[in-house]
Amino acid sequence: MKPAPFTYHRARDVTGAVALLAELGEDAKYIAGGQSLVAMMNFRLARPAHLVDLGGLRAELAYVREGDGVLRLGALTTHHQVESAPLSPDFAVLRDAMSWIGHLPIRTRGTVGGSLAHGEATAEWCLLAVLLDAEVVVQGIRGRRTVPAGELFLGFFTTALEPEEMVVEVVFPRPAPHAALTEFAQRRGDFATVAAAVDLDAGRVTLGGVAPVPLRVPEAEAVLADGGTFAECAEAAAAAVDPPGDGDGGADYRRALTRTLLVQACEEATRR
Ligand code: FAD
Q1: Residues 25 and 79 in one domain
Q2: From CA 258, how far away is CA 208, in angstroms rounded?
Q3: What is the CA(35)–ligand 1 centre distance, in A?
Q4: 168 and 64 in one domain?
Q5: What residues pair up with 135 in beta bridges, in sequence order?
Q6: Does an H or E element contain 102, and which?
Q7: What is the pLDDT of residue 2?
């Protein structure tokens, strides 16, 4: 299918793009890599009357900057830029997780900011942002603010962003040398049925595919804090979640995946 008609606008700078989106109102949307939005438009799940293209802001907003134990990514950084960046072991988990996102042509176009703004609960960027306490810097009509990733995802494809707010940067504020993400999808490149991510240094456990948002699991984190085994941690996580069922798998299947994947993620994080 083809999308419903829309008017195309090209953003020249961040301030102008935000002002334009505010002026055009709720019928307008930013477009970055287009790898989620265009599919939704083609299926008529989204019918924006105006698209504000952020592609012209790449020189300003596509970067990978690591220093002093902090990683900063511009919102228009593509998944593939991160996949091919010379990141230190402190942030290797981000680089390695990119291979789970779709296929190479998707990763060369899709962006970090677009993925976070889209807010898909199994998206790797959403899971990693929650796991690693990322700070999402957004610019709105009244200036910039920082949204902790733990407060960004409110529900099914719903974020705390105001309609005109643009993600401009994502900051990963601490090293995570013993973190890992793994997942299971029906076909290679599909969104995960269940994804599991751990940061053993921080004692964090995050799951995708078991709730409408990327989910931290305090019950599993408590097992890690008490020196429990990875199997006990995974069992606690599986018992704590109440996954939705859909064509990719029912609740029991997702709990079984949680058990297996969380042990795998813990073992991978230990090997780093
Ligand atoms: P767009 O599609 O351009 O935009 C998505 C949404 O974000 C829109 O609502 C848009 O208005 C908004 N937006 C974009 N940029 C900003 C910004 N800077 N500030 C505020 N709002 C913004 N993703 C995964 O995570 N894992 C997968 O396994 C996966 N598999 C895929 C398989 C296929 C076949 C396809 C087509 C896509 C897949 N994706 C997957 C999606 C891909 O990662 C997208 O790149 C990503 O979800 C959105 O990024 P984008 O830059 O393409 O955003």
Answers
A1: no
A2: 9
A3: 5
A4: yes
A5: 148, 171
A6: none
A7: 87
Q: How confident is the model at residue 188 (pLDDT cuts 50, 70, 90)?
A: confident
Closest by alpha carbon to 240, among 268, 264, 260, 259?
Answer: 259
Name the more confident of 2 and 80: 80
**Same domain, yes or no, for 260 and 189?**
yes
Which of 141, 172, 203 is where one domain is finished?
Answer: 172
Predicted TM-score (pTM) of this structure: 0.97
User: What is the average pLDDT score of the chain?
Assistant: 97
**pLDDT in the model for residue 68:** 96
Identify the domain boundary among 146, 172, 198.
172
CA of 114 to the centre of ligand 1 (A): 5
Orientation angle between helical segments 218-225 and 230-240, nearest 10 degrees: 160
Ligand 1 pocket by Cβ (under 6 Å):
29-37, 39, 54, 75, 100-102, 106, 110-111, 113-115, 117-118, 123-125, 166-167, 189, 191
Q: Is 151 among the domain residues?
A: yes
Range of the domain at 258: 179-271
- In the chain, the number of structural domains is 3
DSSP assigned state of 60: H
Residue at 139: amino acid letter: Q
pLDDT of 37 reads 97
Residue 48 shares a structural domain with residue 88 = no
Q: Please, what's the largest Cα pairwise distance for the chain?
A: 57
2 assigned to some structural domain: no
pLDDT band at 1 (very low <50, low <70, confident <90, very high): confident
Q: Percent of the chain beyond pLDDT 90?
A: 96
Whether residues 167 and 92 share a domain: the answer is yes
pLDDT at 172: 98
